[in-house]
């Protein structure tokens, strides 16, 4: 029986290769990108510890995660429609004696074979594309100059395993649905899909919505700053996107009726076609929802967070001038600055350290060594929740609430830059804000640290600047420093987003083109009936194009709703005005329409060739 199922699966793949081309292409590209990014991660692990390695690892990890999610989404969406269009085939197999389990195993076997083929193709492409990816990252400033990928075996093996696993996961629900096809489905002629939402689909959608709500609620209750982390605002909205994609057939109904008012004759026909083919509507709207929502979350949420951090930096920075000492050091410069009338001078130095949590885990933190805590409180408006930062001494530490909600007077274990472990008394606790609070210690607890920043307040600006330049120090005004270190539009952040979003657009373009061609081709009989009652070929093509445009608009609106929801919830971690990237959302929706409408129109032209009676 296994041999027979394998033969059926192979023949089904061969017969339906056109319908599965989109899933195969998306999965092969996904495996290729996973392989390339894993090879990049393996090479990044060999870089010296520092900010460059951390940023590169985060970029590659985000790219790999988004690629995996998008590939799985496309495969699931394509497979769901492909299984639905084979109901008559499955009905015939049931009439011939096939059991439900055999049909389910046949579909899963098809997916496994498709996944293996896509994995082999993707690994070959990924191995060849890895050097190109490394060069592109270096050219964009996202990786150190001269970054090269390594060639260990585990990234390719992992990517190869991901292919069949994603294929099986994406078709598991569709395979179960195929096993429930009744034998009488072989006699089914109607193309109306009104009962698209099964109990399993409802359960999965509500479970994803509940999980997303629980995760966000837990973060808001425990640590709102957690919502501002890159992994959080990149990965958590995927739960919401997947849930809305599952609910797309339900949510599409009111939107379709809303967009086709007033219901004059042409919109009424378009609306009826879209409402009666909800499975087809969902198959087209889901990829549009995906890419519009990803555009909004990857562009909009980081912009909101960047604006919050920039506003927080403006509120906290009180210094008139900010200096960066030159090679000569800072000692003589500090002495001369303090001699200026009315000057408040606050030098500080970056120092790596780690805070030991209650379970013994040492968590790395950004440390700042402060020689004059009183001057620090004058030049920086610290968000003090308890205590007084001015009382910081060699036995003390100032840190934020995120470090286990410490209280003034508690003893906190830290690991200093040279590996020394100390217990320091909490002198003050800072409110979390956007999570940009360093851990403040004194120079005694910062071995090897050199002054890299001097905040100056109240001194004559011209004299202080001239004095700094004579000592070889760089001088920036408060406005210039904020613009350089806390920009609202960080070019590097935009490049990171573009790298991830471009891949999602590529996946979605493939899925949309394939879906538009397949769903329109399946309507040959419907279009033939329209022509038999007097509809011209040109009008039939316009009907298909208008319906496709309408469904694309529905997907874009659902994606915008997901974006608004995610941005509003993540904004709760940083109270700033809610702004959405309307230009990026509109451009993405337009791009989707430029893919779906021409493909559907071309497929309609092909489906209406010849006489109408030939369509039966």
What does this protein look like?
- This protein has 19 helices and ten strands.
- It is an alpha+beta fold and 616 residues long.
- Strands 1, 2, 3, 4, 5, 6, 7, 8, 9 and 10 form a ten-stranded mixed beta sheet that branches.
Distance between the termini: 36 Å
Average pLDDT works out at 81
Biggest pleated sheet: 10 strands, mixed
Helix/strand/pairing class, anyone?
A: alpha+beta
**Unreliable sequence segments:** none
Quick synopsis:
Helices cover 63% and strands 10% of the residues. It has 616 residues and is α+β, with helices and mostly antiparallel strands.
List keywords for this structure.
616 residues, alpha+beta, elongated, 10 strands
Write the layout of secondary structure elements.
Elements: H1 2-15, H2 21-44, H3 51-84, H4 87-95, H5 100-139, H6 153-179, H7 199-222, H8 230-246, H9 248-259, H10 265-276, H11 278-316, E1 321-324, H12 331-338, E2 344-356, E3 362-370, H13 373-379, E4 384-387, E5 396-400, E6 411-415, E7 421-430, E8 439-441, E9 453-457, H14 461-470, E10 474-477, H15 478-485, H16 491-521, H17 524-532, H18 537-571, H19 582-607
Helix pairs in contact: 1-5, 2-3, 2-5, 2-6, 2-16, 3-6, 3-8, 3-11, 3-16, 5-6, 7-8, 8-11, 8-18, 9-11, 9-18, 10-18, 11-16, 11-18, 11-19, 16-19, 18-19
